[in-house]
Design brief:
Number of strands: 14
Largest sheet: 8 strands, mixed
CATH class of the largest domain: Alpha Beta
Protein name: UDP-glucose 6-dehydrogenase
CATH superfamily of the largest domain: NAD(P)-binding Rossmann-like Domain
Bound molecules: uridine-5'-diphosphate-xylopyranose
Helix content: 40-55%
Shape: elongated
Radius of gyration: 24 Å
Pathway: Nucleotide-sugar biosynthesis; UDP-alpha-D-glucuronate biosynthesis; UDP-alpha-D-glucuronate from UDP-alpha-D-glucose: step 1/1
GO molecular function, one term: UDP-glucose 6-dehydrogenase activity
Mean pLDDT: 96
Distance between the termini: 67 Å
Strand content: 5-15%
Organism: Paenibacillus algorifonticola
Oligomer: single chain
Low-confidence stretches: none
CATH topology of the largest domain: Rossmann fold
Enzyme class: oxidoreductase
Structural class: alpha/beta
Number of helices: 19
Number of domains: 2
CATH architecture of the largest domain: 3-Layer(aba) Sandwich
């Protein structure tokens, strides 16, 4: 099938490469000439494991092309995906400027029956809005089209795997012809297809992300209680998750969720609810817990270290999760800002996200992509992202290089008994502190 994907961001590129890999002919189009030039030069503007290889192989096979001529790209395909960004506006609503712009271009270029698919995460009702914008820009031409919602569920860092082995494809459509076409497009993925109307498909995306965010805030709240009653949240999650009605995924306590989806989509869901006169208090609490969690973590650092003022703190990991350079809403941002405002000198390590981090956190931090160099001479070491390099770090060497053997782990990477044996002062999330008295003596 011939597919054009408008928007060469995360979602557009990954889907473009995966559709091509499954044998479809794909044009990834973007008005940003620089990005298209980069892609045509074989450079991938984002860090995502496996993406560069997949793009390269499918370009070689002639199934994947890049173009900045969006109108021609629309005319060349039967299926047009809208995969542009929907950033958070200051009011918390999704900003639809880019989606509207693409709908206008599609309206102006339509040259025969097309199915226009919303892949971007858009508020309920956007399907109808896109349809009306396209219609307004047909300029009296006879061109038929249908609008479909086909939300995205991939995770950064594992996007290719998630897309190639998708657990479900949700297709919201009113027209049988459009539903059939998008069904066929997904046939090679051999996945469960959920057929529904456009509004339900749009809501499934928000409900999924809000539910997952709720699980994380729930376990973070529980971890804070665990700390006060002497319980261990890792054992608790295990015990909780064995109930198949609950499930064991997304129950890892930590420093709060970040990224491009959960923070934005939970806020957008609150806006969607407000707009229809409903107060979604549960999700409001999910957001509040998530905003408090990084600050709670800094308080923990402060207590263990005995005030961070004037101390040199090593921070391991900046990206919001491993295998990405994405810094959007990363918990490292509020944590580092708070550490600095409390007078700490921050030395930060990340294997890939430093350039992105500099843009958000600025130059008040000493950055390095060398882990051991980062911890050298620091008063304490703080773990913010569970990069494999951090999980497998040489603990003996880290201990040698630190001024005091203090490790404060925001991701519960290490085993308590092991840390006890190695004589680290070790604090984590929702688990008892190890040797914490030693730091206060030292
Ligand atoms: C998420 C959804 O998982 C995906 O389906 C959707 O399409 C986009 O948003 P992503 O943001 O890439 O994907 O990452 P994800 O792996 O879901 O992690 C999000 C955040 O939650 C990260 O900051 C992660 O560290 C945190 N998290 C996740 C936890 O703190 N605990 C967990 O148990 C799981």
């Amino acid at each position: 099938m011939k597919v054009t994907i408008i928007g060469t961001g995360y979602v557009g590129l990954v889907n473009g490469a995966c559709f091509a890999e499954k044998g479809h002919h794909v044009i990834c189009a973007d008005i940003n000439q620089n990005k298209i030039d980069q892609l045509n030069d074989g450079q991938i503007p984002i860090y995502e494991p496996g993406l560069a290889e997949l793009v390269h192989a499918n370009r070689q096979a002639g199934r994947l092309n890049f173009s900045s001529d969006v109108e021609a790209a629309v005319q060349a395909s039967d299926i047009i995906y809208i995969a542009v960004g929907t950033p958070m506006s200051p009011t918390g609503e999704a900003d639809l400027t880019y989606v509207d712009g693409v709908a206008e271009t599609i309206g102006k270029s339509l040259n025969g029956y097309k199915v226009v698919v919303n892949k971007s995460t858009v508020p309920v009702g956007t399907g109808k809005r896109v349809e009306s914008i396209i219609r307004q820009h047909l300029g009296g031409r006879e061109a038929s089209f249908d609008v479909v919602s086909n939300p995205e569920f991939l995770r950064e860092g594992t996007a290719i795997k998630d897309c190639m082995n998708m657990e479900r494809a949700v297709i919201g459509a009113e027209s049988k012809q459009a539903m059939q076409l998008i069904r066929e497009l997904h046939e090679p993925f051999n996945t469960i297809i959920v057929e529904t109307n456009i509004e339900t498909a749009e809501m499934i995306k928000y409900a999924s992300n809000a539910f997952l965010a709720m699980k994380i805030s729930f376990i973070n709240d529980i971890s804070n209680i665990c700390e006060r009653v002497g319980a261990n949240v890792v054992d608790l999650s295990y015990g909780l998750g064995l109930d198949s009605r609950i499930g064991n995924k997304f129950l890892d306590a930590g420093i709060g969720f970040g990224g491009s989806c959960f923070p934005k989509d939970t806020e957008a869901l609150i806006s969607i609810s407000k707009n229809v006169g409903y107060e979604f208090k549960l999700i409001e609490s999910v957001i509040t817990t998530n905003k408090n969690q990084p600050i709670h973590f800094v308080q923990k650092i402060d207590t263990i270290v005995g005030s961070v003022a004037g101390k040199k703190i090593a921070v391991l990991g900046l990206a919001f999760k491993p295998e990405t350079d994405d810094m959007r809403s990363a918990p490292s941002i509020p944590i580092i800002r708070e550490l600095i405002s409390r007078g700490a000198e921050v030395h930060a390590y990340d294997p890939v996200a430093i350039e992105q981090a500099k843009l958000v956190i600025g130059t008040d931090v000493v950055y390095s992509d060398d882990l051991l160099q980062t911890v050298d001479g620091c008063d304490a070491c703080v773990i913010l992202t569970e990069w494999p390099q951090v999980v497998k770090m040489d603990l003996d060497e880290v201990k040698k290089r630190l001024k005091q053997p203090i490790l404060i782990d925001g991701r519960n990477i290490f085993d308590l008994a092991e840390m006890e044996k190695r004589q680290f002062v070790y604090a984590s999330i929702g688990r008892p502190d190890i040797n914490a008295y030693a730091s206060q003596i030292g």
